[in-house]
Design goal:
The complex is a heterodimer of chains A (113) and B (116).
Chain A: E1 4-6, E2 9-13, E3 18-24, E4 31-37, E5 43-50, E6 55-58, E7 61-66, E8 71-76, E9 85-92, E10 102-103, E11 107-112
Parallel strand pairs in A: 2-11
Antiparallel strand pairs in A: 1-3, 3-8, 4-5, 4-9, 6-7, 7-8, 9-10, 9-11
Chain B: E1 4-7, E2 10-13, E3 18-25, E4 31-37, E5 44-50, E6 53-57, E7 64-70, E8 73-79, E9 87-94, E10 106-107, E11 111-115
Parallel strand pairs in B: 2-11
Antiparallel strand pairs in B: 1-3, 3-8, 4-5, 4-9, 5-6, 7-8, 9-10, 9-11
The chains are: A mainly beta (113), B mainly beta (116).
Chain lengths: 113, 116
């Protein structure tokens, strides 16, 4: 079956690192994604990782993928108040000719001073 | 501009009303999607249109009726909705899956629907 799970809430202090975790079920997934949703807005792609990679770094963002455990994490270094948002993990199982992304429920990140 | 525009941004309707949500994309994509976002629940994929043909319909009640007249426009027609249908409805678009497509979806800002 297809299922993506993530914790619903994370609170961090400004300047600290944030780690948002996600587990997925479909081992055939080719890409895994992190989307960000700010208040009143749609989802925006933050970063993605191809399934044959273990890690991807992009400025303050580090994505770690453990295919054996089907675990994906997003680390945000030096978290800022502007990082406060909902972060969605998503996978894309191999099926069809379109991008059928399966999303988690989202993790709400609250950054406090 | 996000490239994917949804109207209206907010809609309040009674259970007997008929209304429509509109989505327009200017990105040259040929797949379009409707997702439903409810609080504390995963995004639910409702419908997918690929090359203007509906390719996915995830057991959505018939009170939701999609329409895709061309590759740039997508509608969601609503009639006799229930209060539990209140949610944020997100439209997205993408290229069809072929290398080097990374599978990214481009989302609109959503239409917040309240059913009284």
């Amino acid at each position: 079956g297809e299922d993506v799970e993530q914790s619903l809430f994370l609170s961090v202090r400004e300047g600290d690192s944030s780690v948002i975790n996600c587990t997925y079920t479909d081992s055939s997934s080719t890409y895994l994604y992190w989307y960000k949703q700010e208040p009143g807005a749609g989802l925006q792609l933050l970063t993605y990782i191809f399934s044959n990679m273990d890690m991807k770094q992009d400025q303050r963002l580090t994505v770690l993928l453990n295919k054996k455990d089907k675990h994906l994490s997003l680390r945000i270094a030096d978290t800022q108040t502007g990082d406060s948002a909902i972060y969605f993990c998503a996978e894309i199982p191999i099926s069809g000719g379109y991008n059928k992304l399966i999303f988690g429920a989202g993790t709400r990140l609250a950054v406090h001073p | 501009e996000t490239g994917v525009t949804q109207t209206p941004r907010h809609l309040v309707m009674g259970m007997t009303n008929k209304k429509s949500l509109k989505c327009e994309q200017h990105l040259g994509h040929n797949a379009m999607y409707w997702y439903k976002q409810s609080a504390k629940k995963p995004l639910e994929l409702m419908f997918v249109y690929s090359l203007e043909e509906r390719v996915e319909n995830n057991s959505v009640p018939s009170r939701f009726s999609p329409e895709c007249p061309n590759s740039s426009h997508l509608f969601l027609h609503l009639h006799t909705l229930q209060p539990e249908d209140s949610a944020l409805y997100l439209c997205a678009s993408s290229h069809l899956r072929r290398s080097p497509n990374t599978g990214e979806l481009f989302f609109g800002e959503g239409s917040r629907l309240t059913v009284l």
